[in-house]
Amino acid sequence: MAYQSITVRPCTANIGAEVDGIDLCKPLGNQQLQELHDAWMEHQVLFFRNQPVTVEQHKALGRKFGDLHIHPGSPPPDGHPEILVVHADETSKHVSGERWHTDVSCEAEPPMGSILHLWQVPEVGGDTLFASMYAAYDALSARMKTYLEGLTAVHSGEQVYRGRYVARGGDDSHKVYPQAVHPVARTHPVTGRKTLYVNRNFTSHIVDLPRDEGKAVLELLYQHCEKPDFQTRFKWQPDSIAMWDNRCVQHLAIWDYYPQVRSGYRVTIKGDRPQ
Fold first, then answer.
1. pLDDT at position 168, please?
2. Does the residue 20 lie in any domain?
């Protein structure tokens, strides 16, 4: 696809592109916004450098693509309920996104996209891996695609969030975390392409299969989705931004920089019920 108002450089044949010629600190014109959306749909995850956005500019960018999502567990910064804090330092016991996942897939209408801005990054390490679930689905055999058709799986927030945010003041002793049932293979509502929609973090079991069989199928799919062939890897710099499509992308944040600091904010865009 040809772009006139932005420069788009693909990272791999399957997923990812770096975008230049755009200032996300300023309001976007109609053509830039449309081309940005088109590039996002084509490449699934976009990367930007040297974008020192403020919190309000960050939220305004997210709102260009839909209403902003409020996380069911993570305590937000004061006055900004739409912001998810991403921070790790020498006191951290875990980091956000250290297992392959799609953001908040435990909700009935999971987020369609996420936009992460990191302003402090370690000298080395702290990369993020992104994997195309289009490519993962396309690489399945015809028989496996037929087998998966119509299967649904449970995605549970309980197994991910319970007790995770207590150290940050998030008392969840009386909280009920979301749980939802989604197709194992969904159809992207914009592109019409099929994509795998199970992940190690949230998916607990396949509804329609005996537990042992379902567990074996999920493990097969997890290992398949995590193949390097479907991935791109982003090396962060201060004021880099990544925006990914949760409907067709999984990601994993590599925690190989302890005790260094990695810090930023994420806005997440509401989505619809997977079909």
1. 63
2. yes
